[in-house]
Amino acid sequence: MDNAVKPVLIVKLAKEALFTFVIALIVLGPISGLVLEGFSFRTELARALSLAAVVAAGRVLISFLLGTRICSRALQRFNRNSGGGVTVRKGDEKFPYAVIALVFMAGLSFPFFADKYILGVAILALIYVLLGLGLNIVVGLAGLLDLGFVAFYAVGAYLLALGSQYIGLGFWSALLIAPFLAGFCGMILAFPVLRMHGDYLAIVTLGFGEIIRLVLTNWLEFTGGPNGAPAPAPTFLGLEFTRTARQGGVPFHEYFGIPYSADYKFWFIYIVLFLVVSGVVYSVHRLRAMPLGRLWEALREDEIACRSLGVNHVFTKLSAFMLGASTGGLAGVFFAVHQGFVNPTSFTFFESALILAIVVLGGLGSTFGVILAALVLTILPEVLRDFAEYRVLVFGILMVVMMIWKPRGLVRITRPAFFPSSKSVVEISTNQALEVGR
Amino acid sequence: MSGAVLSVENVTMRFGGIVANRNVSFEAKEGAITALIGPNGAGKTTLFNCITGFYRASEGRIGLWSDGVPTDIGDLITKPIVGGSHLVTRAGIARTFQNIRLFKEMSVIENLLIAQHLSTTNNLSSGIFKSRRFNKTEIEAVDRAYYWLAQMNLLEDANRLAGELPYGRQRRLEIARAMCTSPKLICLDEPAAGLNPSETRELSQVIQILRSEHDLSVLVIEHDMGLVMSISDHIVVLDHGEVISDGTPSEVASDPAVIAAYLGVSEEEVA
Amino acid sequence: MDFYILAQQLVNGITLGAIYGLIAVGYTMVYGVIRMINFAHGDVYMVSAYIAAITLAVLHFFGVQSVPFALITVLVITCVITGFYGWSIERVAYRPLRGSTKLAPLISAIGISLMLQSYVQIAQGARDQGVPVLISGAFRLGSDRDFVQITYMQVVILAASFIAMAILTYVINHTQIGRQCRATQQNRGISAILGVNTDRIISTVFVIGAGTAAVGGTLVTINYGSFNFFIGFVMGIKAFTAAVLGGIGSLPGAILGGLLLGLTEALFAGYVSTDYKDVFAFALLIIILFFRPYGLMGQPEIQKV
Hints:
The complex is a heterotrimer.
Chain A: H1 2-33, E1 34-37, E2 40-43, H2 45-67, H3 69-80, E3 87-88, H4 97-109, H5 116-141, H6 150-167, H7 171-193, H8 198-218, H9 220-223, E4 229-230, E5 235-236, E6 239-240, H10 252-255, H11 263-289, H12 291-301, H13 303-308, H14 313-339, E7 341-342, H15 349-362, H16 367-383, H17 391-405, E8 414-415, H18 423-432
Parallel strand pairs in A: 3-8
Antiparallel strand pairs in A: 1-2, 4-7, 5-6
Chain B: E1 4-15, E2 18-29, E3 33-37, H1 44-51, E4 59-66, E5 69-72, H2 73-78, H3 85-91, E6 93-95, H4 108-115, H5 124-128, H6 132-151, H7 167-179, E7 185-189, H8 197-213, E8 217-221, H9 225-231, E9 234-239, E10 242-247, H10 249-253, H11 256-263, H12 267-270
Parallel strand pairs in B: 3-8, 3-9, 6-7, 7-8
Antiparallel strand pairs in B: 1-2, 1-4, 4-5, 9-10
Chain C: H1 3-34, H2 41-61, H3 67-94, H4 104-124, E1 129-130, E2 138-142, E3 147-151, H5 152-174, H6 176-186, H7 188-193, H8 198-224, E4 226-227, H9 231-246, H10 251-271, H11 277-291
Antiparallel strand pairs in C: 1-4, 2-3
Helix pairs in contact in C: 1-5, 1-6, 1-8, 1-9, 1-10, 2-3, 2-4, 2-8, 2-9, 3-8, 5-6, 5-8, 6-8, 9-10, 9-11, 10-11
């Protein structure tokens, strides 16, 4: 049987390869093969041909693998999980307190083992964890595709920068005010989009994000325009982290009688950030177990069913937007204090897309997945610094592949299990019920 | 003598040029099972949507009565900012849908917990710090969910994904979920659609138990005449958006206008 | 009010609007058949600009002198190749996701958008690129000091857009394939049952959308003379605004919306502020979607419960 099938299969694959090669050449050929130079061009035929060949080979490989028995069996196992891979937990899993405590202690003591460069990457990664958690509430839990999330990030960052410039705001005050200010902005953004769905919601939020960026870029007198504005360094109970005190008072190192190090500032930022992130992770974890968290997820599932159960969908959406925005604002403050200045180029649509990629990859709604994805998507580009040019391309490919392969994210989503408080509750109600369907 | 739980007065529903309901009036008595029947396109689901607050009736009044005091449904929908169909549910009208609208990727218990969101503590600080009051209301909600699962004989499915349940059980789950909102009136939109005869028998038992044991009034849209005739106290017949008959099952069954509407025979011929 | 300045803004606005209309067609037709906003459509327009420039450079290399010949050839070749882009994107990134979650197609589209931008940036470089001036000169009305002018290139843009739209309208309204497109738009399931190859129709719609975007891309490139890999982003949002303004799903709506947006944007830029003209377009989008999401020529969609 197999011998008769083989030549047919080979011919089919060959035709597919040729077809794909030609199409790929038409599509990818001109732009990769004929590079514009001034008004004329230079040829890179080898590049064009090899690109088309790679695409064709890839396509044939996928077709071949999908046809083999190993792959079809794997696909069967994959498709057997109905509900797209969502399962309900058994209810007897023990909460991994030991592991969490270990991770927490390790994270807290990280600065003492890492050098400045790695610490900087870690700080950036934690900022993106915060951003991912915030967007996860809006997109992952509530199902509202917000493409302008970067606006709240900018609000927090510019609050610190402009706040210190105009009203003498410091790091700690900004940290306290940012969630409320960003949350308020979230409310303002939410009102017009409350009635919109899916694609329209996405485009409108995108528009909002862009408006904010354009205003920040063009309003030179207030925001400093494209050059941005400086942001102040953090202080610890009034102690500055500089070599000499600039605002009167004693610098940090002098107060504690230790030699000056430029690293202390970053240690401090890291520790505060780590504590804040831990707090947010815990809060989000609790929110999901609360009625509000369940309402968000129910809203994502079916808004009309929610309304029929007496859920005020307006308030539910608003709360998701506001809490997500608050978290974004918080992240913005850390970003400003870490970088030392802010300008509009940090708040482009690509940032929103990146944060979205984190949420999507991590599993819409999964806290652990979002943390993992944020760490991976921040650390990997640093590790692969040489390939920085290809970063956006890889992100794009990743997003398409993820949607085709695992639209619900890499981490499997599980639902919690619930059990009655006592056996008697169940027994009483079962005895009361009529013999329905027995 | 029980009073009315729902009064529909001269309700007309227009969508642009189309008139889906014209001058519909009827009453649903408290503690009774009222059936809304009619050929396809008669405007039954549209009327349902008006009653349950999803559409705003173009004309007329719909009132939910409790202890002799009416609540105007139209007012609830049009309240500025806070108004909407959710207020109708909170006033005591629950519903199910023609195409089952369960939260398919959440567990069965979660579906029922969401329905009880009003009675569970939603205070942010109570929840985040796991206060005693929060825990207490959560436990009560879970117990209540289990109670309704037992009533609907869905106990073994408690911690399964709602979307995995067979069709008949999904329908029962949707009813259980609606009951978790503690309604006075439950509106069932074609609950027997897609059920085989034995499942339909179970359904009729369920509906009757709901009425007798849980002090509930039921309004049901149905095409299954066997079900309708056996359980209804009162039937309202719609055709082309208007009420053509209103009475007990036996009255309606022998009404020539009803026969004409269903068989497509002109009234002169039958009379 | 100075008549000549106003008239100039109107001329610029209509020309701009014609371009917006051409690209809006892609959004509106795709939304009509599969109820999805093709987020990558703006970047398809950007790709067409590059292909037009490359074709022009190649023609120049082969010593082609005749301007009309070059123009027509560039238009045709760019439309064809961009059409292939439209087809491939639908097959690779959207068709596999037809039964998937609600957010999947949109996120995939964003992925494609990022891929196209970075692909062009890597292959062609991040700098602005340019094409030589093909058509220069203008019709001028008025004196040397106060005048309104319409350049020959603007005439070409208006003519080409008009022809493209006329052909498209004819195809949609008077051919069988157009009829199948309209049927699929109204009810995909029933059309399929009645024998329409809906997959092929959807591919066709994507190709048509890419084609009209290519006309726009070619004309813009030749008119403004410079472009880069990022022009798709803002143009995409503006063309989408035009489609929504006119009523998404409606072909005459796309044309009307494009013209309206072009006119209002030109007037805003001329009389209020040029820096914030993009903000104006985005704000307009938000306002329309809030007050009248079904656009000028659309009907309100009743939510089926």
